[in-house]
Specification:
By secondary structure, the protein is mainly α. It has helices at 21-26, 39-44, 78-166, 170-173, 186-209, 211-230, 237-256, 327-330, 332-366, 379-390, 392-418, 425-459, 463-476, 478-511, 531-569, 582-588, 596-603, and strands at 55-58, 61-64, 279-284, 316-322. This is Choline transporter-like protein. Keywords: Antiport, Cell membrane, Glycoprotein, Membrane, Transmembrane, Transmembrane helix, Transport.
Length: 604
Amino acid sequence: MGEKPYLYYFNILSCITATNIITATMDGLQCPTTQVRDVILSLNLDLCPAFLLPSTPALGRCIPSVGSEILPASSLNTTNITQGINGLLDTLNAREISTKIFEDIARSWYWILIALAISLVLSLLFLLLLRLVAGPLVLVLILGVLGVLAYGIYHCWKEYKTLRDKGATISQLGFTTNLSAYQSVQETWLVALILISVLEGILLLLLIFLRQRIRIAIALLEEASKAVGQMMSTLFFPLLTFVLLLICVAYWVMTALPPSTISCFLDFFPGYLATSGQPQYRWWAPSGTDPGCQDVINKTCNPLDNFSITNCPGLTCQFLGYSSSGPAQRSLFNLQIYGILGLFWTLNWVLALGQCVLAGAFASFYWAFNKPQDIPSCPLTAAFFRTLRYHTGSLAFGALILTLVQIVRVVLEYLDHKLRGAQNSLIRCLMCCLKCCFWCLEKFIKFLNRNAYIMIAVYGKNFCISAKNAFMLLMRNIVRVVVLDKVTDLLLFFGKLLVVSGVGILSFFFFTGRIPALKEEFRSPDLNYYWLPIMVSILGAYVIASGFFSVFSMCVDTLFLCFLEDLERNDGSLAKPYYMSKNLMKILGKKNERPSGEKRKKAK
């Protein structure tokens, strides 16, 4: 091959139409053998070029010249050659772009890893520092929201006053479909002013009346930060969950998807359901209307047989699909539904396993009376094996309930896709209502399952009892639930924004070469598309921050349920002491009763 470095195309006209590579590779490739053929047969089988054109080397290929001489007896013309060259260049451009992308990844992968490491460190520092800055940070965020609304009130009043002085009213404008025109009338800004003012007033009243519950939410966030600091291994537990999810999806892909979807893996893992049947092959030719091809086109063939049909140029044996006859093939649809049900069920079970394991680990932190001395050793490992041994059935039952709702949603989406062209407005309205209802039902079941898994990890009871107890406990403390949920969402959103924006800005300045103070070995590499490593870094930072903050969110929910149970079951006496932190007891005005010996010592 060293003597022939350039690729020559036998027929440049074949580049005009796209070729299905997957179908071509599935026709079966055979090694060439030494054979003696006549000239016509060799040309028909594309073993020799039918014509030669003057070419020039470019990109490792022989590109024909458009202005080359064409034989008079030939069916070629300049238009055909130009179309073939354009098709070839389109293919080369696509390959060139993909090659440049791989080159950029290869040149910048270690810098991308550094950016991901920075996002990991930022996420970890944010969670660990919440024990110190949770209160001030929540205060700053709340003041920021109030400040934005206050500026909105000022801006609306300014615009309203200006338009009122000009006398621009909605009666002069009339009705119009141009929504931007309503910005020039005073009534629009008056309505916006009233709405924002009402919202500002509601938020101020909520802050005044719910300040005690906001202090409790901040204290729980600080406790969650301490719990994560005591059990750092919990931050990396989502990696195990991700691996288990990947295994479930890979197994389903290998057994259920058609071979054209997973053709890269068919040599090792065939798609058993989609390929359950005998393969069918048919004759195909580019010019099926030729007299020599009409007798064989669309007839069955075997790609392993040697065929010698010379009167039909370009005749090939094409793969069509798998036969649908037989009892197994007739029930193939049912097997596919069973496979989808199993996929959803196993995925939900894996997610439930991760939530229950984390809940068990964080519950062991809360119910340790003297922290950190009473925290058991290896709490995450102990919670993992305890969950697998005692709670597998409960998690499977909860995952099954969620799976059934998700399957119904999938069926509704399928029906909506099929009925999208229907003109019946009643059917479309009914479908929209059903989709909305089942979406809300899925959200509710996820919320209920999450808290049920926490109660399972704490008390070890079955799913139904745990779900009922968790729901009733939350309903008795609904205001605290709402306040804690919103404060936690606000903090985690700010944390994600901080991590992702920080990594994105740093990546932008680095990969665009806007940090001139760096030494030569620390300079950014020469890239074809500088935005590619920036986007990869931002996406990776978001995934890392979401994984870390999901653990923190589970910790907050677990400690919150334990806190509510502690309030209802204990009274601070020697027999039933509170397990909450001293900060929480101080906020609630509660305290534990001291033993008589400690009282005498303190009196002395």
